[in-house]
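Appendix B. Chain record.
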Amino acid sequence: ISSPFFPPDSSWDAAYERELQTFQDIGDTGEIWFGEESMVRIIRWLEKHKVPLDSSVLDIGTGNGVLLVELAKSGYMNLTGIDYSPSAIQLSEKVREKEGMSNIKLKVEDFLAPSAELSGFDICIDKGTFDAISLDPSDAVGKRKLYVGSLGRVLKPDGFFLITSCNWTKEELLNEFREGFEILEELPTPKFCFGGRIGNSVTALVFQRK
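Structure tokens predicted for this chain:
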């Protein structure tokens, strides 16, 4: 499986191959992007807004699939994870099996060119995938536009998009997703202090598709 933003033998795939081997050796699921609090933040928002447990949820760039496992433990039943990396999907399948979460669907998919059946989701979640696309040295601007277009196709009208980013400020993300999406709220994230100025190292926003 190839991807327009990373070659098949990219460092991402190699990293997930290492994590897959580590999981097979010692049962360690590997790194949780943005830490455990990022998953808690997402689940709390869904619960606070009484998002029905049978809502269809897509985890874009699922990696080790741990977020989906936590959503399943919280009662969510209609969960799908995609990743362009076959090694990531293999790892998330192992994690799913270990946790006994047979209702989680996992697929190798390139979000910039999604298959036709990837559509109609109530919720889309991104923890770092938009960041990774943004770092691509070849045509990052074009790939960000492809991402926004794909999001508009897979997310239902009035559906929610929860994005966690360490590369983009709130204002920058508002600009990136201005076509077809409106901001609902900014979620609280850890603060840092540098040179007497307080800022956020992580931005977490909730958008709604228009």
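Further analysis of this model is presented in Appendix C.
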